[in-house]
Specification:
16 helices, TIM Barrel, two-stranded antiparallel sheet, alpha/beta
Amino acid sequence: MGEFIGRGRKARRCYGFDEIALVPGEVTLNPNEVDPSWTLSGRRYKVPIMASAMDGVVDVKFAAAFGKLGGLAVLNLEGIQTRYEHPEEILAKIVRPKGDGATEILQAVYREPIKERLIAKRISQIKAQKVPAAVSAIPQRAQMFGPIAQEAGADVFVVQSTVSTVRHVSSEYKSLDIARFCRGMKIPVIVGNCVTYQVALELMECGPSAILVGIGPGAACTTRGVLGLGVPQVTATVDCAAARDLYLKKSGRYVPIITDGGMRTGGDVCKAFACGSDAVMIGSPFARAKEAPGKGYHWGMATPHANLPRGTRIHVGVTGTLEEILYGPARTDDGTQNMMGALVTAMGSVGAKSLKEFQLTELIIAPSIQTEGKLLQRVQRVGMGK
């Protein structure tokens, strides 16, 4: 498998969203009659799109608004919201500096210790809005924060790191026993991130409710540049979906996979589902919402790392409301709004009544899909030429 890249060394060709396209079906359906919902541990969500646990995207108000629209927004338990009683003041400080000065500001404000009472407080504030509360922490803090979040009423706990494996080796600290953690939690646990078939399979065997797929594709992430790590999201999603299907055959238990990052438009979201994803997690498109706490700025969870930042603060602008980004009406011409409208229209176009049927869509390798016939759009920087 793969092709030679030099003497005695092969590499596998992998694909990203810009390199593939979906083939229309022989039967088409009315988009109003398809079902794009997904299920996590028996609970159905009508929006199969999760909002990333990033401080420029999700705070209490955003989580409430997103939940009322039918989705699930994840709050970062190691971010600004749990370090400061009044996070608005800190967020204003983060978005103020120009250029490279933002990383130093981020590193400074994230030195403030996390306060356990604020973990419980933020979750309670979300639950008071009568929406599901999902929260995230890295493996090293999951054992401590998991019970606190569960006691406070969280509905979903996400254990998230740049690279997640079951067999993490360290002589300096005790690694999280993922299987034991999943057994000990009474609420659904999502684990990530991974990009390969074998790791996805081993993570599923630990008992999580779902796994996250994606290393380094996010708009604000620089992991691929700093560390050289990553697998393009189309290949990563297809490989992890294959692991999910094998695990289902072996165990009888279905573990959804969630493609995390790298999706900028409704078309990218549609391609992720067609590649086998059960739900997707995105950040930068939601950072553009009027409700987002970053006020048009977006940065990754690893951006403030004290020694090796693997992210940057980017300006995405404010383009519309959260409802416009999810359901329209779209006020932009580039596919960054009305993502649910794009999804149901694509499902109808390939003849898929459900996301499970959509996962069977015929895919083609189409490197010209973004450029064919789009010269004027590129020259004028409109639509697909932005």
